[in-house]
Specification:
Blueprint (H helix, E strand, L loop, with lengths): L2 E4 L3 E4 L4 E5 L11 H9 L7 E7 L7 E7 L5 E5 L11
């Protein structure tokens, strides 16, 4: 069983969560080229190792959060609110 640590609810079974995708910054809608939008929407690194990801907890607090997860071992080293909601809290 894989446990995901929600910053608000604590560690829960991965089945309670929805993977949103690799965390990244959104391009400026007024300045981005079509190629930048394509890269943002469809290109993923999918590398083995540590990755920063966005997750959603619909079965609990119904909030989005960011984790740093090792894609091979599923070890999670950091779980925190998204950058826009961050208040210095880390679980």
């Amino acid at each position: 069983m894989i446990l995901i640590p929600c910053p608000w609810c604590g560690s829960r079974n991965v089945q309670e969560f929805r993977y949103v995708g690799e965390a990244g910054s959104r391009p400026d809608p007024n300045a981005a080229t079509p190629e930048e939008w394509r890269d943002y929407l469809y290109m993923r690194s999918n590398a083995a190792g540590w990755a920063t990801e966005s997750w959603f907890h619909p079965a609990g607090c119904r909030r989005y959060f960011t984790i740093e997860r090792h894609t091979v071992s599923n070890e999670v080293r950091v779980s925190r609110p998204p950058a826009a909601q961050s208040s210095g809290l880390e679980a």
